[in-house]
Write a structure and sequence with these properties.
The chain is of the alpha/beta class. It contains 13 helices and ten strands. It has helices at residues 3-12, 28-40, 52-67, 109-112, 134-138, 155-165, 179-191, 209-223, 243-261, 282-289, 300-304, 310-314, 318-336, and strands at 16-20, 45-49, 81-87, 95-99, 146-150, 169-173, 198-202, 227-232, 272-275, 295-298. It has an eight-stranded parallel barrel with strand order 1-2-3-6-7-8-9-10, surrounded by eight helices. It has a two-stranded antiparallel ribbon with strand order 4-5. Helix 2 runs parallel beside helix 3 and helix 7 (179-191) packs parallel to helix 8. The two termini are 26 Å apart. It binds iron/sulfur cluster (2 copies).
Amino acid sequence: MDRFAAYNGLLATSKYFKLVCGAGNEDCEEVRKLAFVYTLAGCNGFDVSANPNVVSSCKGGIEKALDFKKRYYASEKSKPFITVSVGMPGDHHVRKAYILDSCVKCNLCIPVCPTDAIPNSLIINEKLCIGCGNCEAVCPPAANAIRYRHNAKELSRILPECVIAGAESFELHAGVPDDSTTLDEWKVVCENMPNGMVSMCLDRYHMTNVHLIDRIRMAKNIAGDRLIIQADGIPMSGGTDDFNTTLQAVSIADIVNKELIKKDLRFRKLPILISGGTNTHTGELARQCGVSFSGITIGTHARKIVSNDLTAAFEGDEVALNNAVGAARELIVKNLGLQS
Ligand code: SF4
Ligand code: SF4
């Protein structure tokens, strides 16, 4: 079976789990370690930044896991797919925070940053920033000191380099209202992955339900059967592991199911990945609510549960490895409803 068919097979059986390393995460070492641990845990896919070095690091982590003496749940047959994420200006996933001179040095932003991107010097480390907005949320209104830069990538140059480095799928974060510019970028994404799956990630910050469904129709006209929709509840909101945090992620998937997949035969097989606020409870909530999905993608929560053991696990410390792979495996099993 070729890789395209294998990918489709996973989606068709709702057995796809993707770890989001962070569209803005350019920390190659962290990505390599995450890919190693999560491949051993039986993860099927990784979502990484549009940077050939990051893609290579992810591939390196996967290969190290497949060569590892104790493979845990990894197998050549279920070798994970690498998806590269790019984003439209204005989409949360591809922005980098910086601090203005109006900062009053209250330091409230330092502990809320999930990636430790804000040091005591208050000069944000762009490589670590994933654009989540936590710092902005706590910054006092009188200071209003957080702003963002779009992490601009020139798609037609960077995407082919990512394919050479090992990318097998692309994703466009398109949670912005402008259809025409988004579809221009979408065409470039599709053209650069002619034989692979292409995903459009959408949320409802700037789009009504009607607009969301219209956008998916437009995306399919260009991508055809290669289209995946990543339904993003609240982007990068998965820090807390409870049902409420994952409610919107399941809700947006429900809208796509009800308003498109069940109403229009052409979309009956449209794969939906649930994301944005995903955690241990996402799969269970979706199953309880009767919301169909093809896969689940988790970022913040999935990275958090292995963070204490990640480096030692990567270096082969058996206790740390058992801890990290065990935690990652449990997350996958619970979400996909697998036998442990
Ligand atoms: S809190 Fe989020 S947006 Fe702010 S610096 Fe950290 S990662 Fe970037
Ligand atoms: S929360 Fe705002 S004002 Fe306080 S240190 Fe951070 S950027 Fe400066």
